[in-house]
Amino acid sequence: MKARANAVAEPAEVKVVGKSGQISLGKKYAGRTLRLERFGDGRIVLTAVALVPETQLWTLSEPHRSRIESALDWAGKTEPRESNLDELLKRVSKSPRRRRGRRR
């Protein structure tokens, strides 16, 4: 796992585990998802994580990731303009129709 280059250590704190087995990390972490790692020497490491739904994992693999990045780059550099709907309809009517349904 890569450490973040801009990660700066904050001063160490001492927390006391309550009778219910809980500690308070403060409002900074309220609602966040954390990964808990327990080590044999007694260390516990909490790492803030972001979860990706399985249905969206494809966006993180190539070639999809590069295509999405280039599309976002293009969108950031390109001024929006109004579409000519009549011209778009002409293009659609000229293109060959694709069959819908299952491929065999």
Properties at a glance:
104 residues; alpha+beta; two-stranded antiparallel sheet; elongated
How many distinct beta strands? 2
End-to-end separation in angstroms reads 42 Å
Fraction of helical residues: 10-25%
Output the radius of gyration.
25 Å
Question: Which runs of at least 5 residues are low in confidence (pLDDT < 50)?
Answer: none
Q: What quaternary form is this? A: single chain
Helix-and-strand structural type: alpha+beta
Strand share of the residues? 5-15%
What topology, given as strand order, has the largest sheet?
1-2
- What is the succession of H and E elements? EEHH
Shape: elongated
Largest sheet data? 2 strands, antiparallel
Mean pLDDT: 87
| Total of helices | 2
Task: Give the arrangement of secondary structure elements.
Blueprint: E1 34-38, E2 44-48, H1 64-77, H2 85-94
Antiparallel strand pairs: 1-2
